[in-house]
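Re-run with default settings, no changes from the original entry. Doing this only to confirm the output is reproducible before filing.
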Amino acid sequence: MEIIAGVDEAGRGPLAGPVVAAAVILPENHDIEGLADSKKLTAKKRENLFQQIMDVSDVGVGIISHRTIDKINVLQATYKAMRKAIDALSQAPDKALIDGYGLPDQNIKNEGIVDGDNLVECISAASIIAKVTRDRFMASVDPIFPEFGFAKHKGYGTKQHMEALQMHRATPIHRKTFEPVKVNLPNMAWLKYNKKVGQLGEQLIALKYLNNGYKILEMNRTCSHYGELDIIAEKDGETIFIEVKTAMRDQMGGPVLKVDSHKLKKLESAIQYYCSEQETELDVRLDVATVILDKKPVLKTYKGISLD
């Protein structure tokens, strides 16, 4: 029996976030019902099928970031994601069936099938894995950019998204080479004038934590008169509070990046206030992060800062 992998992608069209591809080898006598083009399924149905597919199938996923999309274009990024997904399978397939058009080479034996996500079960399964994986990522960045509504539109160019782009300018996860983004890129002068320098630093640090497996719970949480907690994250049952200090390159060496004892006391009070509002006792940690904004931002984190 030939080992056949179905392959599909999600995220070629959005203005933000990665492109994701999935490859799926379904077992011959699977009992998964309802496989179809992921776009024709409800979010609840997709989530249910996602787990069923993961439970019984050989699944590979390839994720290519917005930065790579800007470097090599979205079509080449999609091919790269597909190759990564196929390579991530635990067994090498004899052939890959790809939704739409095949890869432009036969290094991996493949065939494109137009409307394959409707016609071929393993491609339908791949379309579900790719879309759910990407949708989950876009939901995970939503707390970092609450004004954009990424959890709702997943980065596609909806009316809400376009209005947010014009008002708030592009975020660090937008695709800079896409025209609606290109005309709404923030520069340093705009960031300074609109008092967004600190916010950008916080977003960059939050993305760094997210990429390291943390869940971002909240940004800029006001804790009564004690002040604001920049980032609240969670990992392995621990709640992490991250204080972020951001500066331009020409501000290095000044007091702007320092957290003094007075600030630490305020942070301790704010953390205690936050914990008092929760229903369960929290295992907490305080981190401090610094961001130097330059052509390439410099990010540093200092974990487990003592509040004593």
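The chain is about 40% helix and 25% strand. Residues 196-302 form a domain with the Trna Endonuclease; Chain: A, domain 1 fold (CATH 3.40.1350.10).
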